[in-house]
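Weekly modeling sync, notes
Attendees: S.R. (lead), two postdocs, one rotation student

Agenda item 3: backlog of single-chain predictions. S.R. asked that every request posted to the team notebook include the full sequence so nobody has to chase files. The rotation student volunteered to paste the first one in as an example of the format we agreed on. Action items at the bottom.

Example entry:
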Amino acid sequence: MYPFISNETYLTANHSALKLQPQRIVTSVLLTLTALFIQGHQPKIRETVSGGNKTWQIYDPTTHQKATFYSEDDVRIWLENRYRQ
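Predicted structure, as returned to the notebook:
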């Protein structure tokens, strides 16, 4: 047999494992878009530690506001107030 010819099986575009149902494709696209939309509006919270002191820096992409807090309770209060508005 020729050394460059293989007996391995390759998937082709017509192979059943590669055929996706249109409904599954649409569902996948919608879930991805929904996740991107929701995540884009969520506040970004970053915890930092410097000299043994913790701080939380928050960025709100909806209002473009930045805030720094020195306790988790203050972060929770800020978040609760944000969602009440």
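Discussion: group reviewed the output briefly. The chain is about 40% helix and 25% strand.
Action items: rotation student to repeat for the remaining queue; S.R. to check formatting next week.
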